[in-house]
Amino acid sequence: MIRTSYTYAAPDTLEEALSLVGQDGQQVLTGDQSLIGQLKQGIAQPQTLVSLRKIPGMANIDATAGDVQLGALVTYADLSRHSALAGIPALAEAVNTIQDPHLRNHSTIGGALYQGGPIHGPVLAVLAALDAEAVLATQAGEKRVAITELLQNGSSGLLTSGQLLKGVVVPLNQDVTCTYLPLEQLPGQHARKGIAVGFRRTAEGQADQTRLVVAGFTPFPARFDGVDGSVSQLQLEQTMATWLTTVPAGFQRHLIKVLINRALSTIGVS
Amino acid sequence: MDLNLTVNGSSLRADVEPRTLLIDLLREQGGLTGTKWGCGSGSCGTCTVLVDGKATKSCQVLAVEAEGAQVTTIEGLATDGQLHPLQEAFWEHFAVQNGFSTPGTIMAMAELLENNPSPTEADIKAWMQGNLSRETGYQQIIDAVKTAARHMVGLNGQESAAVNNGGIGDSVKTRKTRDLLTGDAKFIADMSLPGMLHAAILQSPHGHAIIKGIDTSEAAKMPGVVRIFTAQDTMQHIMPMPVIWVPPNIESHFLPHPSGIVPGSHSVFASDRVRFAGDQLAAVVAETREQAYDALAKIKVDYEPLPVVLDPEEALSEGAPQLHETAPNNLMIHTVFGDKTAVEQAISDAEVVVEQRIYNQRMMHNTLEVRGVLANHDAVTDQYTLWTNTQIPFPHRLLISLYVLGIPYNKMRVIVPAIGESNGCKGNLYPDTPLVLWMAKVLGRPVKWVDTREGFSRNTAQSRDQVQYGTIAGTKDGKITALYCRAFSNVGAYPVINAPGQPLALIGRSITGAYAIPNPCYEVNVVYTNKVPTAPMRGSGRAEAIFFMERMIDLFARKIGKDPAEVRRINMVKPDQFPYENGLGWTYDSGRYEELLDMALEKAGYADLPAMKQEAEARGKWLGLGIGSYVAVAGVGNSGKMAGEGLMSGTWGSSYIHVAPSGEVAITTGAQPHGQSQDTTFLQIAAQELQIPMDYITLKHSDTSNPIYYGQASYGSRSLSVEGPAVQKACQKIIQKAREYAAYLFKMPIDLIEYKDGKVIGTPAPDQAVMSLQQVALMLWFAWDLPEGMDPGLEATAYFDPKNFNFPFGTHIAVVEVDQQTYAVSLKRYIAVNDFGVVVNPQVVDGQSYGNIALGIGQALSEEARYDPETGLVITKDFDSYQIPRAGWLPKIELLRTETPSASNPLGAKGAGDVSNPPVAPAIVNAICNALAEQGVEHIDMPITPEKIWQVLHASEPVTA
Hints:
The complex is a heterodimer of chains A (270) and B (961). By secondary structure, chain A is α+β, with helices and mostly antiparallel strands. In chain A, 29% of the residues lie in helices and 24% in strands. The longest helix of chain A has 18 residues, at 249-266. In chain B, a hairpin with a 7-residue loop joins strand 28 (759-762) and strand 29. Chain B has 961 residues and is of the alpha+beta class. Chain B is globular. At the A-B interface, helix 2, helix 5 and helix 10 of A face strand 4, helix 3, helix 9 and helix 26 of B. Chain B: Residues 1-77 form the 2Fe-2S ferredoxin-type domain. Chain B: Keywords: Iron, Metal-binding, Molybdenum, Oxidoreductase. Chain B: This is Molybdopterin-dependent oxidoreductase.
């Protein structure tokens, strides 16, 4: 039961959507089920819900030689079935940590960026590790923002009110290796916690430009920069503020160390 | 907003609010109630439908977003009256128990088979991660999906054991199942009456507080509100809940009850003080459910919070907050079972003594179906009718009429619609139930109340929650000489109707389990705290006792350096010792305890355990094997014995049988099925006895207006072994009357009248002197020529009150692995060897075992009701915070069974419904402790989560959350 009353609009064009999204009290709905949970709990209390479902092209997956573009309404089920995923195996690994068919059918790329939470952690972590960019529509045209940059925004959402997400662009680069390492846990309804590790192999065979992004411990994945063999207590504690409170922090730190060590051994750093 | 979509091939136009959920559109405007509301947060999957072919939890999607979509609900799955292959296969494989989760599971599986025509077991389990089942244990569902997949591509499925008809020992296909598969069965939330109003009930958010004032003025002005009730309105009209279990000759402290006959419990509304977060304060009755809840949010209560006490030992200590004036130091009962002095002496004389504190955690029944009530009062006839999902309809009729509302018993009728699992929580009388009935009378319109998931977490009884200080003593070569358990049972803020049953007899007389222990003692303090009241839960009492015993014996074996299996063998009750008095009040009927232990060990490959451990170690895992042997009292009565325990009720079984002039047989049972398939098993008993096809017989229950004196209902694994013999006896009475009548008509001595194949036969002239049961029934209905003293008609009433309980037994074995880095626990194998005496329907009984095992896995690994220590509010208010086992947690369960008849009833049956739950949690915990033994771990309290293992292994590190 949703207690909040709001108005609902499903504009036919991006322009219309932009004008609605610019108003106070709006919330964008990309068909993601997380927002419905937030509405029921009163976490989200919009005055207007702006659904993007009628805007053409928002659910498209377009693969080119250099990148893959995922519309904001692309679901994880769409993603898992699309041939483009063959070029981004880490994304397939991330999606595969979600088993509930409803969550695959009703979790979207837009939901990952607008709502986040435990279901979207692995996909967001992989997108960040792959240097993917969010494509935002503005009155002045399109704007691209690196997802790693958005991850700095904290716990309430990667996109601020008034931002309209068109989709995400994932660069395809032969030199980049990326994988998602899920944690062993009793299979639950949510995605599995884990770590996305991305790196570029140098001519000498060394790992370079390493990205380590940990998913499932914070509302949005946490990126660890400059990790070269170990992670400091300080680095771990710096992200503590937003960590889940139901599990002892010490144990969460322990698991993250395990994940980072596994990630580093994957890329040949120990 | 105007909305147009296609549902099951037909257009559905509706005017909805933007906040309306798809589930509400389908159920309320589409009338498609096969889609069930379970958790409300997208966790349980009971609301799954297909939207454009995609599995969709309809509680997690806005109706407006489905504009233009093609929606298929369970009602749309069968075509032209032909069940979908999934529906057929669920039926064939006994995958339907109470059926509440069945429609959603089938809909999710429909998408799987559409995408993947030949799924593996792993594929099915993965796809089922979004669908919970709280009673089936998943195994039969998985088998059903595999079969359906094969059928859909024209292949033969996995062979089903189901037969269409049969007697005792046959896996007969379950009756009354079709409407559960098609979504046509009406559960309480699916019901409505003309002119019906909706109620919402306000619960306290404080565990302990003084109520300084309640302001309902703003709420009263909300749209659709008809009336708001508080304690001011009900105080003079509704008496407090009664307590009907008062242990004799023991000091006990309950609350007063104006009847003066029984002690009391809480009132429908708190008036001056709330004592747990969930205590009721007010009810709003409105035209729609949404309006009732919208208005409820506007009621303002002025609370003065008081300190809360949530721990039973703290509650007994000096200076603790006091809950009730009538219960000094928060003590409800203190008592001792066994000879404490002798036990203390035996402990002090023993070569080896092991002590351990064990906390059997607080559990939530968390049935997927919440509780609900629909009530009506006919002012013209003064007839009260109550529909509710209770497992005790006759006790509801008696207790509400006599002790709560003071209305005539003969003016009250209780009907149980289709009902989801109970796990024990629907065996209590809750204050909301008489409240709704009373409000319906006051308002002169039917009133319906269906709880929310969060409401359920606070107002529906919880269970277990016992602290145990254990001492086990014995010899160095493994003979146990004494066992002592000093326990503190936390029963929450108020007593439920049978509050003392679980912490006293069910645990206290059961703690020696399968062993002959010369000196046992159980001492218990039953304590009030500011937690939700507790009631029995599947495995009730026996689960706490067996967990205690099986952990203590493992610790003892470890201390003396002996094989825990061998120590069990040394101490088990031997076959020649039956009937065996266990020293605490139970007399075990029959058993082959050691034999079943050895069967389980052999199946598990126990001899290879060191090699298994070594292999796992190489993969970075600690492997452990744990044993859970058990004996569990079942089959409640005998009535006299139960009176001795303090139950103020009979516990006999009852049945009424009626053979119509057409030959059709109708049997009313005193049992109250809620997923155990008595509609099938009782018919098997009757069909075998009467030697007629099952389809000639109908079983009636779930309505107090059925022709039966009283039904003692279903709980504690009693139905088959207590109510079943009453059915058998009623059939025998019919046969006896038919033979007597035939003897008169055939002019033969009764000794020459045989009853065979549904006929009475005069054996000297079998071709001439023969009448079918139908002919006998018709002739007795005519009653033109009856022998002296014989009444017309062919009917009988029968009762069965067993002389003793019965004692099913067995051994379960769990093999687990613990990851050495993440401490994740995974269950690799689970072997269960059970003996339920004579089994009527093996597949039905297997279904009960699977369900018991899944519940035990939950207790061992994940489930615990958690509370805010400051406010006393239940934190685990949904299925995200309270993790129920999902299909992927379970390995393929390996079930084995033997049959040792019980002497306690003529069927030779023993209980099966909940008795195989108690060995599960100890088997798993013993396995984990075995896996971690070399790390120095002796005991970890449940639920054993990775963080608990981390805490134990890294005790020096900070553990603050």
